[in-house]
Amino acid sequence: MIDCLTPYSIASSIKLLRDIHTGAVAVFEGDSDIRLFSKFLDEAACVPINAYNKDNALKVIAILEEEGIPGVLAIVDADYWRVDGLGPPSPNVFATDEHDLEATIFRSPALDDMLTEFGSRTKIALYTARTAASVGDTILAIAVPIGFLRWASSLSGLNLRFEGLVFARFVQLRIPLALDRARFIRAVLDNSQRHDLSMKQIDEHISGREKSGADPWQVVCGHDLCCVLSLALRSLLGTKNANEVCVDLVELSLRLAYQQPHFRVTSLYHSIERWQVATGYRVFPEQ
User: Fold this and answer.
1) Residue with more model confidence, 285 or 2
2) Whether the Cβ atoms of residue 29 and residue 57 lie closer than 8 Å to each other
3) Where does the chain show beta strands of DSSP type E?
4) Does this model's pTM top 0.85?
């Protein structure tokens, strides 16, 4: 059924919606984004629509703009727009502050709330005392090289496959948490069936991106952050079993911990506020 949904069919459904709803329409990449933003939207004034991916969302906005349909905006992940020197293609498209929504949530106080619930206070205190670094900063340092390789793969057409990577193969659960870079590269090559590439070539791709000076938060993938956190909560930072802190539950728990005060300090929130003023359409509840 989802395969039958095209940007044109989604745009058509929004135009039909205009018969019963004259307010704003917010287009999202997926269902999990809608569930998160339902906490922040005034759903009497703004109807959320699932486009099922970023490309669809952008095309829907372009179609509706061409047809002169007002009051529709899209909220999407920035991905590598900023490090590639790009930006939203329309004043009706708004991007996350960080690489993606999961990274934004991870960077917020929601992480501390989630650690309080799922971590061990003693283990976390011991870890931060011995490393003089926060849990978030440590996990960021591990996940950023993964993000750099994802970025390099998209730029250079390496067609590397990251879905299905087993993080336990290359994340070293010790104090401090660490990425075994050689094992990571080998895991990616094996996962991608790219044995025509050498480990040295892949390491050079990562190093080249690292030298770019890019903001780590514009590179790191939120899913990678959550994969590392999931492992750490099983031993180094907590005592949970794998089922209690699987990646899906870690991501869900972080979304639940992310609240309005966290969102209201983002550039995304303030940009949409300005859009409300400029267009006369309301997205968020009146204060």
Assistant:
1) 285
2) yes
3) 24-28, 46-50, 72-76, 93-95, 171-172, 178-179
4) yes
